[in-house]
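task queued by scheduler; priority normal; single chain, no ligands, no partner chains; default sampling; output format set to structure tokens
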Amino acid sequence: MLFIRTIDLPIKRPYPGDNLREESFIIFREGYQVHELIMQACKLNGFGPNVICETSQWKFIMEMVSFNQGITILPQSDLKEIDVSEGKIKVIPLIPHINWQIGIAWKKDSYISYATRTWIDFIKTKLEASKRKTK
């Protein structure tokens, strides 16, 4: 997971999670796994986050952060989608590191449409490529 904020504040790398207690959080709304991970991480660090905005739109989250309205925490996999080229935001590894796993499931011996099979094949390919990178 990565801690993301505006660039104007000096931050040491990696950043201890317990230092976030005074920050305003802009996060995904309840029902998203990332929301639960943030809440659990804050609780483990001894505080409840000061959530000023919850949304389902990650681009809106990044706009709010770029306008210095607060911070966010996102999975590292989302980093490719974040535009840091204009220098408005800073992406910082968070410690302790927060791991998360994603799984897919379907009913055994049930019909799987062509589109679903294609999606499953795509996910398998991405996961295998990711495993090769980490070795």
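post-processing summary
- The longest strand covers residues 89-95.
- DSSP finds three helices and six strands in the chain.
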